[in-house]
Amino acid sequence: MHLAYPAVLSVLLFCTGLYGVLARRNAILVLMSVELMLNAVNLNLVAFDVWLSRAAEETLHSGQALTLFTIAIAAAEIGIGLAIVLAVYRNRGTSDIDKLRDTAEGHEPDGPDTDVSDSDASATQAAAEKAEATA
Amino acid sequence: MTPAATAGSLVGTMNLAAESPGFLSPTGVEIAFLLVGLVTFGAAVVTVTTRQLVHAALWLVVALGGLAVEYLLLTAEFIAWVQVLIYVGSVVVLLLFGLMLTRAPIGRSPDADSGNRWVALAVAVAAAAALVWVVVDAFRTTWIDLDGAPAGSTDVTGASLFQHWVLPFEALSVLLLAALVGAIVLSRKAKAAAAGGGTATPPAAPPPTAAPPAGGRTSGPGASGTTDAGRDTEGTR
Amino acid sequence: MTTTTLAVLVPLLPFLGAVAGLLLGRTAPGFVRPLAVLPTLASLVLAAVVAARQGGDRAVDAATELTPTGSVPIELALHIDGFAALTAVLVTVVAGCVQIYSTGYLRDDPRYPSYAALVSLFTSAMLLVVYSGDLMVLLVGWEVMGICSYFLVGHYWETPEARAASLKAFLVTKLGDVPFLIGLFALATEAGSFRITRILGAVANGGIEHPTPIALLLLAGVAGKSAQFPLHTWLPDAMAGPTPVSALIHAATMVAAGVYFIARLLPLFEASQAAMVVLAVMAAATMAGSALAALAQDDIKRVLAYSTIGQLGYMTGALAVADRGAAVFHLLSHGAFKALLFLAAGAIIHAAGTNSLAAMSRMGHLRDRVPDAYWTMTVALLALAAIPPFSGFFSKEAVLGVAEHVVTGHTEHTPAAAGWIVLLAGLLTALLTAAYATRLWLLAFRGHGTEAPDHGRQPLTMTAVLWVLAVPSLALGGFAFRALPDWFDGHDLTPTLTTSVLGTGVALVGGIVTYATWRHTTAHAVRVPLGAVAAHPEGDAGQVEAEAIASHEPAYGDIAYAPDPSDPGRLLLGPLHRHAAAGFHLDAVYTALFVRPVQAGARLVRFLDREVVETYVRGAGTLPRWLGAAVRRAQTGNLQTYVSVLLAGTVVLAVAAVLVATGA
After folding, report:
1. Which of chain C's residues have a Cβ under 8 Å away from the Cβ of A101?
2. In whole angstroms, what is the distance from residue C356 CA to residue C348 CA?
3. How many domains does chain C contain in total?
4. Membrane-spanning regions, if any (chain A) (predicted)?
5. Collapsing DSSP states into helix, strand and coil, what is residue C356?
6. Contact B46/A at CB under 8 A
7. What percent of chain C is predicted at pLDDT more than 70?
8. Is C352 among the domain residues?
């Protein structure tokens, strides 16, 4: 089999996951996209391991071992990630990534944290307008 | 420009067909790989584009399952079953729990994508184009010989894992223990903070004292699958 | 021990006393008084021994160069001639008296340790000036005296008068010190040395090419230090310091340093006729103006301050007619009787609870409360008024006699104009001096009215030194005028008949006229009640004085003036009285000429800084601010934006890396 097939598939899956990470609003969907990216990498590792174990007499099977490790780490990551998302959701009442703008310029650290989206968003917008006005 | 380059490289490969097997005469495995790959890619695209959040998780199952099939086609059997067990069995279930606990809307939600969509699309397409160009250009003549003994049977994988990769394997168990404890602590803290609000319980939280000292042997949110895999490997040996 | 060793010890002992006093002031208060008094008294003994050994013979010279300084060498040098030996004795006598007096005067003052240490340091610096044979070393002592004067004038720094006076004293004397320093450098450059002996040698050989500018520059420093017109305005205000400080620094010693300096370098000044004439005019203006101002002052210490300026004018007058013997003779006798006057005035202020002569003239029997001060002050005032046979008579007649010599053409290289100026101004000042001395005595001791408050007797430390100083005030002149020429240049200091008759005559006239006027005006005193007395009459003398100074302006409307119709000075001066009380408005003139322009300049600079320079700074800040605002808009807080930009950059870099690697 041509190595190009799994390699290209891996690239396409990776970029799909990339798009998901950048475009999705819900944090859990972002986590799913991260899983996609990890799996793309796994496919790559497996394909190259198979190729190398035949062609270059590489007997360590490092690709497959690393794939297993990646899967384990991905499992840990998803556990931690979900815990974080849940904590954020409990504190903020939302799991939308683009509402978590604490690092934005002009963000008020004392602003109402528990109150949900609208006031926060409007406050952020007002702050942005103020920043523009002062600029 | 990049698709053109890819096309050019394909043409170049055709001319070289005399030495290495060409793309125009695919084997049966290749056709199967291509078809499953198309399904996987399609499922992945739907996962990142659908407006129904739960459907996204289900399409993710399809994509991950398709990848497991691809692993089988690449003769990596053990990885394929681990993939099915962990991803399809536990990760997606966890994600669905997560969706439910965060009260994700059932049905179409109009704002599933953020305003960053077009930028994301541009970046993703650019990255895909660059990577495809590079990968194809580099590996267009590389041929994987899939005949003979499978490269990733449980036997082979277990042997390499416990001959060459024992130390990282044990280190990984410590990492998993840390992840376990971390997930519990995060959830408990959130519960204590939200005791007045009374929203939800943490997903899976046995008290930390219940965990035996041997890191990954208990059932944790993320640890179970991997531990099972380890046990399987031991059993095979 | 050799004379040189003794002479080195003389300034060193008070310096060590000052250092020890400053170090132990807080931890061991019991040592402060011995540390203040004993080194000064030891210095007195040593200075006396040095004077006895020197004995008016050839000058003792010793020098050591610590380190080569490149161009003109600076040496630790001693030059002890008759002038230096006798002046050092005077300084140590007065300093010893003042230290003893201060132990009583400031007995309850919490800042006494630092005060005593500064007085010791001052004494040390003055002795350094007196003994030094190197002008740079002399300058060190000169400036240390200046800073000690600043601190001591500001001793009562709680009162605004003391703060303002200390700043004024410092700034005005520094104003003179700048040209003084330039003059010293110019002099050393032309003479090739800072050593006084070599400079005088160069003057004798005609090695100084530009004596006039150098002399004039040095004169500016002397005018500042010795409170000569037009830089004398700091001295009356400096009376806001404690009375012993006034006695030591602002009457007997520091202000005499300028006179002493000219006396040391007199040949240099003689080389310039212009400098001598300027000196004479300066002396005349100082004498006459200050005597008039003294007649109008209400504060007893300001009367004495103006009288000091006038007596210093006599000394510079003697120098202007090129007789340093007469100048230093007057310096010695004046130092004794003026220190006595101030110390007695301190006792009187303590007893009366006020420093205002107008208030004292409304107190009966003040003289019975302070009999020691009464008698000794009478002696000192007679010496001040130059009544024979008190010491002031002989020294002042020496000055007038020399001036008369010059007028009659007995000397060769002194301009006759200088002689005339000094003689006439001296006679006028003698008249006025007798007048204000009589006024002071009458108002202070011959008052009528309510009984003066009785605070008991003054401490023995304060009264004993009055009698000690009364001895030289009474007898120094009569015994010394025959012996002194051996110590000095050899000029005869015996009073001449003409000037004696003239001087004593005008002095008597002044005294009698004042007495008559007083008899005429004193009747008004009862009708106009006046007076403000210190709030804590039982406190120590320093506290009473500080309160008296602080309350003078609120009580009478001016620090130097009281609306008292029974003041004989008012009748004598007529319309001039108001102006004389204000020091002929010289302060106002300075305010208009210097202070206001400087303040306006400061305002202009502030305007330029705030409005013009700031504008450019703000303008320079605008561009970065706009850039910052533009960059700030990228900080949306949206993680996905950040990651998008990061990954886009990564893609671009990766493509670039691949292109470079493949050589495309």
Report:
1. 636-638
2. 11
3. 3
4. 66-89
5. strand
6. no
7. 94
8. yes
Q: Which residue of C has its CA nearest to A23?
A: C640
* Chain B residue closest in CA terms to C658: B134
Q: Are residues C461 and C363 in the same domain?
A: yes
- Report the complex ipTM: 0.75
The tokens of C316 are what? 């510079």
Distance CA B172, CA B185 (A): 20
Element (H, E) at C641: helix C639-662
Of C644, C651, C658, the CB nearest to B119: C644
Q: Which domain holds residue A113?
A: 101-135
Query: Residue C409: helix, strand or coil by DSSP?
Result: coil
Chains in touch with C (≥3 Cβ pairs < 8 A): A, B
* Beta strand ranges found along A1-135 (DSSP E): none
Q: Where are the alpha helices (DSSP H) in C524-638?
A: 541-556, 568-573, 576-581, 586-590, 596-607, 614-632
Does B10 score more than 60 pLDDT? no
For C170-179, write each residue's pLDDT tens digit.
Answer: 888 888 899 9
Q: Is the domain of B42 the same as that of B61?
A: yes
User: Is B131 in contact with A76 (Cβ distance < 8 A)?
Assistant: no
Q: How many domains does chain A have?
A: 2
* Chain B: closest CA distance from residue C618 (Å): 38
| Rounded distance between C-alpha atoms, residue C348 and residue C360, angstroms | 9
Q: B192 and B213 in one domain?
A: yes
Residues B212 and B128 in one domain: no
Cβ neighbours of B34 (radius 10 Å): 14
**Quick one: pLDDT at residue A42?**
93
Q: Which residue has the higher pLDDT, C565 or C318?
A: C318
Indicate whether C381 and C528 sit together in one domain. Answer: yes
The CB density around residue C307, as the number of other CB atoms within 10 Å, is 29
CB of C224 closer than 8 Å to CB of C287: no
Angstrom distances, CA of residue C151 to CA of C155, C164, C175: 6, 12, 18
C-alpha–C-alpha distance, residues C424 and C8, integer Å: 42
For C624-635, what is each residue's pLDDT tens digit? 999 988 888 877
What residues contact C121, with CB distance under 8 A and at least 6 apart?
A: C14, C15, C18, C144, C148
Question: How far, in Å, CA of B221 to CA of C500, rounded?
Answer: 122
User: Residue A65 sits in a domain of what CATH number?
Assistant: 1.10.287.3510
Task: Count CB atoms within 10 A of the CB of residue A8.
Answer: 20
A57 lies in the same domain as A119: no
What is the distance in angstroms between the Cα of A83 and the nearest Cα belonging to chain C? 19
- In this structure, the answer to whether residues A72 and A123 fall within a common structural domain is no
Confidence (pLDDT) at C207:
76
In this complex, do A28 and B53 lie within 8 Å of one another by their Cβ atoms? yes
Q: How many Cα atoms within 13 Å fall on the side-chain side of residue C204?
A: 6
Nearest by CB: C644 against B116, B130, B134: B116
Sign of CA dihedral A61, A62, A67, A69: positive
| Domain membership of residue C533 as a residue range | 296-573
* Judgement on whether residues A60 and A77 belong to the same structural domain of the protein: yes
pLDDT for the residue numbered C534: 60
- Phi, psi at C363, each rounded to 5°: -115, 130
B134 touching C, CB under 8 A?
Answer: yes
Position B16 confidence tier, pLDDT thresholds 50, 70, 90: very low
d(CA C44, CA C100): 13
pLDDT value, residue B15: 46
Shared domain check, B141 and B60? yes
The model's pTM is 0.64
| pLDDT band, residue C195 (cuts 50/70/90) | confident
Interhelix angle C254-264/C112-131, rounded to 10 degrees, is: 10
- Inter-chain CB proximity C640 and A98 less than 8 Å: yes
Structure tokens at B31: 């056709």
C-alpha to C-alpha distance for C197 and C133, rounded to whole angstroms: 7
Mark yes or no for CB contact A134/C633 under 8 Å.
Answer: no
- C58: amino acid identity, one letter: R
CB B68 within 8 A of CB B84: yes
